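sry for the spam today, last one i promise. struct tokens for design, 475 residues
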């Protein structure tokens, strides 16, 4: 019994680490850029990083997810696995060449049609990185599908450590932000070399072709596109559109508030994989009641904890921003941006952990449609608001997108999986009133640190927020 519990704890720790490390590393890199080079460089780098992540994500076309699922379904059938892998490699080669070519040949046009101070070379570097990243994604999917989770975890940690070290060195010698992407390229090459040295790692360069068309693979793989990383899609779209209308400095100020937004959601993003496993196991055993109960309790607990965290951040924003970025004079602007983002972040935090329910009940296509709708809303809102309101318009667009995600989440699922959205809106209003109270009296941190949780708990109890009864909660 003790060994089983220890193994379970170890598996959960590794799962949390993978999700948390991926987010933390990105945040550390952005914070390093801000501290070494300032807001203007942070703005340029944030724009280029968003460009890289969005187009890498799209150029994958869901192929990595397709490989992981299909290989896992055909464990023991080596011939079938080889056919799946060969078809995926063929499709990935086509996709990578297409997107890399777009970046290489449009680099001059791209660099002259933005409002930030990036270099043409940055687009060329992104075009070079994309094929490496995509094929590394297939290898990672193979390791996960065949049960080599320790190998995948080790390789990812090595890659991220290499990226941080290389970028730290480049920042120390004041490399311009447009060329910092070279650090990402080197880390991807390092991952590729390290993966080849692992026992059981196939060499994708020698995978033969089979008579399976690229379109046949893509028809299956696109089902896995836009089924995860909702926050990344929303925030990266903001950076991308802001780069067309605002200066690097303004974008850097916005990026600092966006970094705090990501830190705010670190816990739910980190623990989401655990709920994916728990929900899938429970549904496979027919235990729907356990899943619905878990969803209700988790949503309330996450919302409660993040209400407290949000109040701490808002009431001590200046101290936090100074400690993270060592910047002066932009606190008020960053604070206003974060206050605009806060309502959306709070509602978003309550449902993001519940995303795995779509996978557990085999409704991933509904989650995909939901994320696409939210991305379209965010895109439209940004193009409408940013030209007039700049970075505040981008913050408003993000908050709207997160709120839309909260409202539409589980809307097309069975009633037992839904939440009483009105109850959360009332709780959000309570959080706002509590914030106004503490802001008015400007109490010391030693007082607010213990008083805020008590006040929030009492008010949530009075509005019956902790009532997990299905009739009360699932409306």
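last one done:
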């Amino acid at each position: 019994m003790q060994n089983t519990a220890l193994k379970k704890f170890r598996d959960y720790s590794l799962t949390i680490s993978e999700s948390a490390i991926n987010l933390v590393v990105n945040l550390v890199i952005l914070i390093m850029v801000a501290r070494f080079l300032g807001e203007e460089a942070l703005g340029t780098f944030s724009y280029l990083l968003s460009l890289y992540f969005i187009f890498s994500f799209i150029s994958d076309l869901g192929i990595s997810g397709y490989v992981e699922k299909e290989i896992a379904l055909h464990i023991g059938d080596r011939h079938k696995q080889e056919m799946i892998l060969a078809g995926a490699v063929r499709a990935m080669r086509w996709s990578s060449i297409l997107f890399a070519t777009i970046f290489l040949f449009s680099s001059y046009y791209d660099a002259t049609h933005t409002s930030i101070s990036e270099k043409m070379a940055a687009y060329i570097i992104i075009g070079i990185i994309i094929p490496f990243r995509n094929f590394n994604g297939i290898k990672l999917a193979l390791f996960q599908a065949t049960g080599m989770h320790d190998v995948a975890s080790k390789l990812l940690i090595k890659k991220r450590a290499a990226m941080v070290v290389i970028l730290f060195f480049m920042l120390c010698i004041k490399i311009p932000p447009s060329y910092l992407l070279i650090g990402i390229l080197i880390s991807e090459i390092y991952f590729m070399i390290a993966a080849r040295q692992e026992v059981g790692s196939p060499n994708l360069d020698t995978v033969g072709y089979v008579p399976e068309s690229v379109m046949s693979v893509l028809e299956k793989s696109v089902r896995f596109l836009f089924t995860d990383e909702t926050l990344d899609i929303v925030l990266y779209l903001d950076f991308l559109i802001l780069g067309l209308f605002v200066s690097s400095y303004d974008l850097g100020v916005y990026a600092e508030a966006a970094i705090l937004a990501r830190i705010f959601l670190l816990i739910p993003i980190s623990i989401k994989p655990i709920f994916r496993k728990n929900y899938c196991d429970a549904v496979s055993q027919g235990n729907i009641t356990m899943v619905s109960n878990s969803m209700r309790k988790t949503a309330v607990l996450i919302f409660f904890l993040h209400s407290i965290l949000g109040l701490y951040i808002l009431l001590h924003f200046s101290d936090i921003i100074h400690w993270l970025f060592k910047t002066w004079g932009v606190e008020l602007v960053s604070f206003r941006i974060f206050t605009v983002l806060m309502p959306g972040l709070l509602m978003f935090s309550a449902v993001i952990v519940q995303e795995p329910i779509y996978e557990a009940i085999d409704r991933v296509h509904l989650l995909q449609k939901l994320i696409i709708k939210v991305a379209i809303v965010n895109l439209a809102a940004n193009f409408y608001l940013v030209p007039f309101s700049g970075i505040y318009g981008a913050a408003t667009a993000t908050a709207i997108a997160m709120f839309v995600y909260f409202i539409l989440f589980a809307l097309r699922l069975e009633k037992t999986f839904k939440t009483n959205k009105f109850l959360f809106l009332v709780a959000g209003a309570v959080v706002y009133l509590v914030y106004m109270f503490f802001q008015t009296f400007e109490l010391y941190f030693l007082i607010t640190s213990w008083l805020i949780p008590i006040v929030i708990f009492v008010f949530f109890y009075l509005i019956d927020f902790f009532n997990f009864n299905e009739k009360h909660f699932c409306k």
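Residues 5-9 have pLDDT under 50 and may be disordered. ok im logging off now
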